[in-house]
Hints:
The complex is a heterodimer. Chain A is α+β, with helices and mostly antiparallel strands.
Amino acid sequence: MTDHHKPVTEADLHAYVDGFLDEERRRDVELWLSGHPEQEAEVRQWQAQAAELQTSFAGYAQASEGDRTLLNARTATTSSPSWWRRAALIAASLTLFVSGAAAGVYGDRLLNQSTPIETAAAIDSLPGQSKTAFLVYASEKRHPVEVGADQEDHLVTWLGKRLDYKLVAPDLKSLGFSLVGGRLLPVNGKAGAMLMYQDTAGQRLTVLLGKNPENAETSFRFESAGSLETFYWIDGSIGYAVTGEVSRAKLQQIAEECYRQFET
Amino acid sequence: MPHAPDQDARVKGVNPPSADTFENQILSLVPSLRRYSRSLAKSDSDGEDLLQDCVEKVLVRRGQWRGVNLRAWAFTIMTNLYRDRHRRFTQHPSVEFNDTLGLMAEDVSGDPLQKTRLQNALNALSPDHRSVLMLVVIEGYGYQDVADMLAIPIGTVMSRLSRARRQMAAHLAENNIVTLRRPK
């Protein structure tokens, strides 16, 4: 197809993402993109990015009861409103902290907020730890696990106790994987658990569970490194990671099945 | 302090806009100003501080407002304040109150991993790039509007937008992560 239209410029691509093109030009750009996969990938990325930014900040466009005091702040010209706000914040955070500690809810949140980097680092290392555990143990011939599937009840009680969590070993038979067993191992510097499964061909996968410093809930996340695929998520006080050398689609099925069974 | 002579005239509405109307107009802009300030800031409290400074400045400078597009004018003031604060902060870093007491009480539904990741990518942008990206993507301003608001050529708007988008994408793509909806 030849371009009898105006050539598509980078400015057009931005205008396309931002919805500033008229219908005809928009179609031109779409046609052009379909023949330029590299630029199309970038444009799709920009669109996703824009959508994510919009969702993230949409919630802030709200009026608040205190808004009128914003207008009055000026009348006390000698004292900086920022100073007032800071003082109010400190007072409020103290109150919230104390009452929250009693309720056991906000205190937690407050602490988490003041250490976002540490928390994020600890969480981000979960898939890394899961990959390492897989690489170390899944290739092990004689002692892949400490406690075998023949003692499943003992296994889950023991590991559950160390994790302070009602652990179940998910049944993955419907997906072709049966339990090999499990072991205790450090995750995030604390006692964690690893469960191992394998299919009839001897293909293995591991499920890692670790204490999570932050009481949080995340979406499912996926990370791949070479042929290794890892799915991970956090649910309350426990972080989970499923690692295997299987396709992403297959592993997702497995992870979802684990998620469902861990829930109950 | 001598009594401001134009005060009475303004109250009578001889000299529009009257104080009341102006302040109410500002009040109605506060939600979108709050969103913009938060999109520029590193934390909720930082965002509220910036908002407060901005409203204060808008009120102090109301005499300079030429009577058209109050929102764009306030956004320009906010952008300049943000740049100044950023410059001051980089020169004299101070301890940050990273409170959770934002008036919004946060959308608890947000995924903390995702939010941290996005916030980090944003914080890595320069103020000039970040403000252009936010004015376009979140506030929905056209490229020429942004050029006028920031008193820069439209070509500069486009190059900042490009740069911001590519930098964000690179930052977000650094770890090979795909986020999926949780099964229910």
